[in-house]
Amino acid sequence: MSVFNIWDKVTEDYKTVKADKYLGIFGYPIKHTLSPIIHDTISDEFSLGERYIPFEINCDLGDYIKSAYDSGIVGLNITVPYKEKVIPFLSDIDVDAKKIGAVNTLVRNDIGYKGYNTDMEGLYRSIVESGVNIKDREIIILGAGGAARAVAYMCKKYNSKKVYIINRSLDKAVKLACDMDDGLFIPLSADKYNNIPKGKYIFIQCTSVGLKDGDGLPLINDVEFYNQADFAVDLIYNPAKTEFIKFMEKQNISAINGLKMLLYQGIIANELWNDIKIDANLSDKIYTKLIKKLYS
């Protein structure tokens, strides 16, 4: 099976793309992705002759991973719902990605693809760039899915003081805390949020709440709870301002969306694929393109 026969209703533009080498992303749905802007810009700047293709995969992930490898795909990103499901189909996995339990980047080697998680470092870089240090801070993570796994591991790796994981399903929050294997984490069901001591926290929103108009605030409908934030991150970047971000801004709480996380996770992935270093000027150029596309 050729990888170029597995597209499911991607835009006609991608069906006719020709290049010396190909990169891509597997996910479902995938048509909204901005990642081609990142990687095609890098290819043009470095004269790599690569093009980045979104593949909308909704079954047989293992077969498609093998097909991508056999077809010579240089590297892949993996997005929802496959960041955890892809792991059995890898030839190797990076230490951090293994501990996180989720993979978003595949790097080609002699026998298959090695899995990495660049989401975690991409998020960390975006937070640091905002002038915030998570070391010795108390964090509230909203959600316990694949994205939250990378956030939790980031908190562990960079020495946060305490991390509350809030999720509708307590079991899922408990599993994430246990998988991190660290007393740093306190899992709570959403109805027990008042068990968190009053104070000031970094809030990191990892659920899909906010992707649609009218979604409201995630998990907990209590403005006093959210007023405890002194910095907030929503991993959603489209729309650029979810109700969570709008609320924080109304309260004069510094908040960022996930666009720079998207930028930096992509840059780190491309550096792995091509053994290059991408400087701040090119990063800024790509970010400007992303904003233009997002708001066009």
Keywords:
296 residues, alpha/beta, Rossmann fold, six-stranded mixed beta sheet, six-stranded parallel beta sheet, 11 helices, 12 strands, globular
Descriptive overview:
This protein folds into two domains: 3-117 and 260-295, Leucine Dehydrogenase, chain A, domain 1 (Rossmann fold); 121-257, Rossmann fold (3-Layer(aba) Sandwich), CATH 3.40.50.720. It has 296 residues and is of the alpha/beta class. The protein is globular and about 55 Å long. The chain has eleven helices and twelve strands. The longest helix is centred in the last third of the chain and has 16 residues, at 259-274.
Shape: globular
Helix content: 25-40%
Percentage of β-strand residues: 15-25%
| Corresponding CATH architecture of the largest domain | 3-Layer(aba) Sandwich
CATH superfamily of the largest domain: Leucine Dehydrogenase, chain A, domain 1
Contiguous uncertain segments of 5+ residues: none
Q: How would you summarize what this structure contains?
A:
By secondary structure, the chain is of the alpha/beta class.
Show the helix and strand layout.
Layout: H1 12-15, E1 21-27, H2 35-46, E2 50-56, H3 61-70, E3 75-78, E4 92-93, H4 95-100, E5 105-108, E6 113-116, H5 119-129, E7 138-142, H6 146-157, E8 162-167, H7 170-180, E9 185-189, E10 201-205, H8 223-226, E11 229-234, H9 243-250, E12 254-256, H10 259-274, H11 280-295
Parallel strand pairs: 1-2, 1-3, 4-6, 7-8, 7-10, 8-9, 10-11, 11-12
Antiparallel strand pairs: 3-5, 5-6
